[in-house]
Amino acid sequence: MAKSVDEFNKKRLRSSNITVVISIALVLFLLGLMGLILINAQKYSDYIKEQLVVNAYFDENFDAKDSAKIAKLEEETFKKVQTLAPVKKATYITRDMAAIEAKKTMGIDSDALFEENIFPSSIEVALKPEYVDPAKIDGAIKIIKSVPGIVDVKNDSTLMVDVYNNLSRILKWILGFSILFLILAVVLINNSIRLKIFSKRFIIKTMQLVGAKRRFILKPFIIEAIILGAIGSTIGILALGGVWYYFTSQIGSAFVQDNNQYFWLIVLVLGVGVFISVLSTIFATWRFLKSNVDDLYYS
Questions:
Q1: pTM of the predicted protein model
Q2: Which residues are in the ABC3 transporter permease C-terminal domain (predicted)?
């Protein structure tokens, strides 16, 4: 009879641990997925912002005999523009290149309409994402325009503002959902741990009644919480990695190439799983340590 009771208790304990691990894994999988989406959304947002370029133009009025000298000056100006704080990338476009691009745009194959290169040479500047901010872009343009040799800087400011505002709005929504999932992770993991501790409330109180100190009673529960949290987090991370690998292989793109960000996401997910498990265990166990014996039947 005693053996059957022990076996029943072991099965119930095993089932309780499995339930907690699965709960932690599922919740952290969703939390990690939102983290991946947020990381890649931020990078994709920066990529789109970098495609919004401004064009810095050189003076187109000069004597043809000075063309070699002007070309050298433009090259020096181009190098200076590349070193400016707001500049992410700069591309030097010569008059010949500008003419070729104009022909492509207008669908013209012949040189009949172009007796000479009527288009000025320029620099196509991709700004750093933070300088695409409507509050900073005017200052960035002034910095570029102040470089000797640049006579004009043009950009489609309306398009930039619209794109920036839309991307910022999307990122805020994703960030909001990520915070919501973090809160849900805390609540769901906490509830799973509390149910597990609740099933052991009589054991906790019995240990206390026979003289065990609170620290002694807490220690095995905390160790178990660390183990269950780590196992659940690891399963969630492995599932997340598998799903993300399948997704990126299907679309043929790895999105963010910076493995450091993935590493810190893994550390965050693992840390959240262990931290919440331990914290929930301490609070739930402490509650029964402070309660009276009679309260255990009505908790």
A1: 0.64
A2: 177-292
